[in-house]
Amino acid sequence: MVKGISRQVIVVHAPDPKLFEQAIFILKDTAQGVSEDALLKEAERVIRSGAPEKKHGLLRYGALWAAIGALMTGSVWVLTALL
To answer: DSSP 3-state assignment of 43?
Structure first.
């Protein structure tokens, strides 16, 4: 239970109710001075665009760094074995 906190929210109903019924956006305190129409349009834009897919790039970079780490570990092992 949360006590003593007051937040402004925007509730937007989903255009396609198969996945979810509504989205709730919690506004920052710095959002004062922005019109309600602008806030609602931005919330609807976010819902329609969806979340950006960043998993593929992260997996590529993760595999690259794993390969670099394996190469460096192998190089250090070869140098210590030879010396």
So the answer is: helix
Sign of CA dihedral 35, 39, 40, 41: positive
Q: Is 64 left (phi over 0), alpha (psi -120 to 50) or beta?
A: alpha
For residue 59 the two structure tokens come to 């997996």
Quote the CA–CA distance of 44 and 6 in Å, as a whole number.
23
- Ranges of the chain whose pLDDT falls below 70: 1-4, 31, 50-59
First-to-last alpha carbon distance for the chain, in angstroms, is 64
Number of H helices, E strands in the chain: 2, 2
Residue 58 half-sphere exposure, CB side, CA atoms within 13 Å? Answer: 4
Q: Quote the pTM value.
A: 0.46
